[in-house]
Amino acid sequence: MSDPWRRALGLLEQDLRRRGAAEKTRHAYAVDSLQFVRWADRHGLEPAGVTPRALRRYAAGLTEARQAPTTVARKLASLRSLFRTLVEHGELQQNPADLLSAPRKAQKLPQVLKPAEVAALLDRIPADTALSLRDRALFELAYASGLRAEELVTLDVESVDFDGELVRVEGKGSKTRIVPTGEPAMAAIARYLEKARGALATVDSDRALFLSKSGRRLSTSDVRRRLRVWARQAASVSTVGAVSPHALRHSFATHLLENGADLRSIQELLGHASISTTQVYTRVESARLRSAYAKSHPRA
């Protein structure tokens, strides 16, 4: 690898850290950028010699290698960041990736549970052991506040404001937001803290809100696994295989929209940086209305 490319990758890593990008994001951008740098090396291209035409050839190669459109789009987004960094640091005059169009991605609607399915799932958790008390609090909160799995596991005991019925959440990019939480979730958390957390905690436990049976902070894989366990027991949930923490988050947003919440408020509750990300829920609602129309109108 040439020195200019080595410097470019180093500048990208520095900028991503400065912007507070998550570790997974930094890793993905580094892998994607390194893949392109190796391709550029084989074609004798330095950063200043990369043109939109060269990038289109690279993207075409990814497509020919049967990379999924979402994967190609992500890799091109990484390259836009790489070259934007070089422009910002005065290494290039313009970003050759700005003129590159991403492949069209299939519009896949998020998996959403019906309110009755969510109720059946949550009510199926008995809350009669330390682990079930924890799980009831965990998933009541996930649905009540629309939290990501990554946000649930980073909560500390002090993150919960019982008086205000609020939770302080550390979201993507280390951005903190305050999210309201309903009475059932607050009651479930209170029961867990009173009756179960002490039984799970060890001398080595930190201030994590949700603890594993060994007393450590839960991982996101723990959250997904435990939700699958309870989903299998809730027979009224029609798509057990699709039930995930993100499905609860999608359901939270969709149910708010169905009951009159405005899109801007939902954006703030979810912690979306852009309203365009939140607009997917209007497509979910639109699809539901079209289905109802097709089934009900005599001349549909």
UniProtKB/TrEMBL annotation:
It comes from the Bacteria. Residues 1-87 form the Core-binding (CB) domain. GO terms for molecular function: DNA binding; tyrosine-based site-specific recombinase activity. Residues 108-294 form the Tyr recombinase domain. NCBIfam families: PRK00283.1. Forms a cyclic heterotetrameric complex composed of two molecules of XerC and two molecules of XerD. Site-specific tyrosine recombinase, which acts by catalyzing the cutting and rejoining of the recombining DNA molecules. The XerC-XerD complex is essential to convert dimers of the bacterial chromosome into monomers to permit their segregation at cell division. It also contributes to the segregational stability of plasmids. This is Tyrosine recombinase XerC. It comes from Conexibacter arvalis.
